[in-house]
Amino acid sequence: MTATFAALRKSRRVSQLELSLRAGVSQRHLSCIETGRSRAGRETLVALLDALGASLEERNQALLAAGYAPAHAERALDAPEMAPVRAALEQLIHAGGSAPALVLDGDYHVVMANAGVARLLDLLGLPGEAMLSQPMNLLRAVFAPGGLRGYCVNEAEMCGEMWARASREAEHLPRLRALLDELRPTLQPWPAVETGNLPVLSFGLRAADGTTLSFFSALTSFGTPLDITLASLKVEHLFPADEGTRRALAGGDTACG
């Protein structure tokens, strides 16, 4: 348990003294726990993990390393008991009408997408339904050579923010960190961009006919999940930012460029 917990604390850049104050555990006792001279009780360990803001997966790993049963299940999204979750996700991604919406797991795999996503890909000149019928990772789709970032009107702003968000999440997700390490050599750093005062990320995509489709992005996640799979899921809606984009997605005239 010692190496696992000490690594977790250091990854959060929290000193033993700061953690002891947060969790109400003496620094001496915390030092003994990390060096293996003392075994943390389950309640103490949970308090320390709470103080570190550990993810559900990290909590399970720390509990297992200390000899305790894991606290959180990890059910597959297609498991029978997850049917209410799947129904809720379906409702979320279809609630916006023709607005593109997709469900991503912690590694940015697309696990659900609505017809609006296929329609958007078609407008870009890509085979939407064919792409979505295959396993798809959003980070690969955007950042791999020849990827969707090439369609961005404001690539530095959109891709810089998307990469920064994924990098923050990857600090605690080894598989995601490995994916970013794989993609990074093919990318150039994006210059800092003034994003203005909007509370959402806005961006434009070049359609196949040369017009611009304008969107703003909004993310939704489950607030108090008790399952590792559920904790990793996020729903991303791409809402049309102008009437032309709205018509294009609905099958009418394309947006004005």
Automatic annotation (TrEMBL):
Pfam family, one: MLTR_LBD
Transmembrane region(s): none
Domain HTH cro/C1-type: 5-59
InterPro entries documented for this protein: Cro/C1-type_HTH, Lambda_DNA-bd_dom_sf, MLTR_LBD
Protein name: Helix-turn-helix domain-containing protein
Organism: Pelomonas parva
Lineage: Bacteria, Pseudomonadati, Pseudomonadota, Betaproteobacteria, Burkholderiales
